[in-house]
Amino acid sequence: MIVRLANDEDRAAIWSIIGPTIRAGETYALPHDMSEAGALAYWLGADRETFVAVEDGRIVGTYYVRANQAGGGDHVCNCGYMTATGETGKGVARAMCLHSLDHARERGFRAMQFNFVVSANERAVRLWQAMDFAIVGRLPGAFRHPRLGFVDAFVMFRDL
User: Is the pTM of this model over 0.85?
Assistant: First the structure.
């Protein structure tokens, strides 16, 4: 698997990944009815670098990295990751996370923070913990899960 910077030709493949995830409403605090244009504008925003994971010529995942805050907090980055339907459990998220950690270090970031990890997304929580992220905060009932109701969200952090 290779992870590379996204380009304009990747937009349809990125939408095919982020669209279903946004519509499901189980892992990201984004409007379920977000338009394709709105979702792509968010994921490919000028304030971030967006990457895609490619396996056998197919885009199987995507992530972005950006400064978590401006000014005095711009040495800490933030990332968002999404894996294509049917590709979970195959190491895509792990590969993207490893790439993002290396890329963030190269860009001069000193730490990485995930602001809002939905506690019910147990697979992601386990992966981030295996990648040395610590839960440094719990936001009780901060996420309205479509099946489970109000669930906690975690703030997760690690030094680079």
Answer: yes
Give the confidence band of 127 by pLDDT, cuts at 50, 70, 90.
very high
Cα-flanking dihedrals φ and ψ of residue 26, to 5°?
-100, -15
Contact (CB, 8 A) for 76 and 55: no
Q: Which CATH superfamily is domain 2-114 in?
A: Gcn5-related N-acetyltransferase (GNAT) (3.40.630.30)
Question: What is the residue extent of each domain of the chain?
Answer: 2-114
Q: What pLDDT digit, counting tens, does each position of 8-29 carry?
A: 999 999 999 999 999 999 999 9
